[in-house]
Design goal:
alpha/beta; Rossmann fold; Arc Repressor Mutant, subunit A; 2 domains; 5-stranded parallel β-sheet; 8 helices; 11% strand; elongated
Length: 188
Amino acid sequence: MCSIDDGGRSGVTRVRVKSRSAVVEAGITAILGQRYELVETEPDVVVTDDSDDEWEPAIPVVALTDELSEAPALIRAGARGVLPRDANSAELIAAIEAVTAGLLVLPADQADAMIVRARERTTAALTPRESEVLRMVADGLANKEIAYRLGLAESTIKFHLASVMGKLGAGSRTEAVSIGIRQGIVAI
């Protein structure tokens, strides 16, 4: 049995299994019943293929689906994990452990697609001038030198750099350059 810090309860992860199909629910219950305490109320995590349910935000949900392209919508609806409906027992157990620990679980291709979309949004958020300033910072130039090369006031460069750091969520010039490299804004 798996333990979690549950504020003084039994120490065993309490799982509620809910499916639109009695056969699927019985199969999942058989897999998980050997490892977890199966409950109808007060679960630590819910495993379900019923996306029509209203999910309680405080309880992590592992959603099972036939259409993995639904993963972003299921996450927006409150699921903390998304797996294919035919996930094997190891995948189900790993997902339960992960969401109970506060992690997000997605199929690899869906996670990759979400990362790409996030990078595209961030890259698109920088103006051409901000990207140019960031590349010059990556080349090791000081604000004064960047201003001279671009024919701008040093205060304008500081403004652009502050905007870049804000958009990238960077706390320093070095971190902004590092993020820029990872996102393909800055070539190395």
